[in-house]
Amino acid sequence: MSSKKIARIAILSALAFVLRMAFSHLPNIQPVTALFFIATISLSYYEAFLVMFISILLTSILLGFGPWVFWQITTYTLIMATWRFLLYPLSRKIKSYRVLMQSFSAAFLALLYGFVIDSCFAYLYSMPWWTYVLSGLTFNLLHALSTFIFYPILLMLFRRLFNEKMV
């Protein structure tokens, strides 16, 4: 791996760490999900995975380790793959309102992320699935809404960094 790629991964990981820590006091308002999606479409999937992995491990040092770290990494890997290989290519075929459709797709995947994480914890704690998912619905909707809002903002900011090849 070239030093340019390593530096890009390090800078984006640090940015994701800072964003996650800056918004950690708010309930599930996470701009890092949008950042991971932008990294997924602008870098190789492996590099985007490293950005996600490093930033989650770094924030876990300050916010605490537990079984949720494994579930976060696994679930982010799945939704980033879904974004990269399915939803983003489909949204590229739409000519008008492309960024809006991408924002809706990113919000849907953020909501899916919450449902998968809640399902894992319901299984881990031997709780009824529907009660755990319903109790976390507000937080999952906040995560989806924040991803919907942050995606176009971060996309505009990162266009120049990635030579405007994304949109």
TrEMBL record:
The keyword Lipid metabolism belongs to this UniProt entry's keyword annotation: no
One Pfam family linked to the record: ECF_trnsprt
UniProt superkingdom: Bacteria
Coiled-coil regions listed in the entry: none
Assigned keywords, A-Z: Membrane, Transmembrane, Transmembrane helix
Transmembrane feature ranges: 6-23, 35-63, 99-125, 137-158
Gene Ontology MF terms: transmembrane transporter activity
Name the record gives this protein: ECF transporter S component
